[in-house]
Amino acid sequence: MMEVTERRAHIDLLEAYRLNHDRASRDRLVEELMPLVRALARRYAGRGEPVEDLVQVGAIGLIKAIDRFDLERGVELSTYAVPTIVGEIRRHFRDRSWSVHVPRRMKELSLRVSRLVDELSSELGRAPTVAEIAAAADVEEEDVIEALETARAHTPTSLSTPVDASGELTLIDLIGEEEGGYEALERGSVVRTGLEGLEERERRIIVLRFLNGMTQSEIATELGISQMHVSRLLRRALAAMHGRLDDGEGVPV
Amino acid sequence: METILLTVPAGPRGTGIVSLVLGGLGSRLDLPIDRVDELALAAEAVGASVVGDSLELEVTVLTDRLTVKIGPLGEGATTDRRVLEPLVDGVTASSDAGAGWMELELARGVQG
After folding, report:
1. Fewer Cβ in 10 A, N or C end of chain B?
2. Is A224 exposed, middle or buried (0-12, 13-18, 19+ CB in 10 A)?
3. Helix/strand/coil for A68
């Protein structure tokens, strides 16, 4: 159980960071919460990734959690940070897991292409073309097309997939709750029938894309995941919606 | 104008080929990958409603856009157009010889 003084110190540091943009306060918070990151990273030891790498990606999750934490939430920062830290660690593993046999060369190129897509999207302000990715990766365009298809064959991850050892935390926990899209959904009923077929927690990505009109790149930034991962989640959600609509509850074309 | 006709097995294997073809075409037309990805996503969604063993695809490349016609779809196929519309620039349903067809349209140009 966290001491009251420690909790107060975290709040003070957060306020100093938020109100005065005092980065030193954020760095102090990161230092104070690094034992939590290390403890979570150790849970994933022995799974083929060096623990120090897991600590580093976990630290990125911690910084994201600090940046997103809402002081009005009424929960501890450390409690709030756990799913984000675990999510980053899981993402690290996910980026290295494949549902089908893929040659090593193509796995590596696919990971590289996935990162270049995000980098180029940010640089260009739009998604890149295959030619642009090929130029950046110094490979042939055909290789990029194959790598993009390979990335789609990459293990799809449900938003409700547990991301911690206890199975209580899911990817959606990383995403947060506050979103006006649900109200829009209720008002508009645009794709309500299909959405009802999805798990409650899988709806948000559909809401962001179809009701809020965000692009895949924007959703990726919002959720802190890669554009390729958004693409995979959209596929999964649409497939689930299709299954639901096929049960006779959809709107005919 | 250029036309590509393709018949593939219905189901995930066939729609995978459709995605690959659209990916290659998108590359040649220099379209951003997210637009091509969403066209492929829409094509996959429609392709899941195909009746019979084969999915038929007709891609027409025009100077300002490309169209992708997919079928044959069963009566009352349940791919909701309102799900498809945010993914592409146009969706048109038609029927021909007792079967339904869905035509998806994507404007060319990097910004779409």
Report:
1. N
2. middle
3. helix
CA distance A65 to A174: 9
Q: State the average pLDDT for chain A.
A: 73
Identify the CA nearest to A172 among candidates A147, A206, A195, A197. Answer: A206
CB contact B31 to A (< 8 Å): yes
**Residue B84: closest CA among chain A residues belongs to which residue?**
A210
- Assigned token pair, A203: 């709806």
Report whether pLDDT(A7) > 80: no
CATH class of A4-94: mainly alpha
Q: Where does chain A hold its CATH 1.20.120.1810 domain(s)?
A: 4-94
Residue among A209, A214, A211 at smallest CA distance from A185: A211
Which residues of chain A are in CATH 1.10.10.10 domains? Answer: 104-153, 176-249
Q: What is the CATH number of domain B2-107?
A: 3.30.565.10
Q: Is the pLDDT of residue A176 over 70?
A: no
Using a CB-CB distance cutoff of 8 angstroms, which residues of chain B are in contact with residue A251? 78, 80, 82
pTM, entire model: 0.57
The answer regarding whether domain A104-153 maps to CATH 1.10.10.10 reads yes
Residue B68 has pLDDT above 90, yes or no: yes
Geometric angle at alpha carbon A64, from A63 and A70, rounded to 5°: 105
Give residue B89's pLDDT band: very low, low, confident or very high (50, 70, 90): very high
Instruction: For A50-66, write each residue's pLDDT tens digit.
Output: 788 888 889 988 988 88
Q: Is A245 on the interface with B (CB under 8 A)?
A: yes
d(CA B13, CA B6): 14
Residue from A178, A154, A158 nearest A234 by CA? A158
Contacts of A245 in chain B (CB under 8 A): 78-80
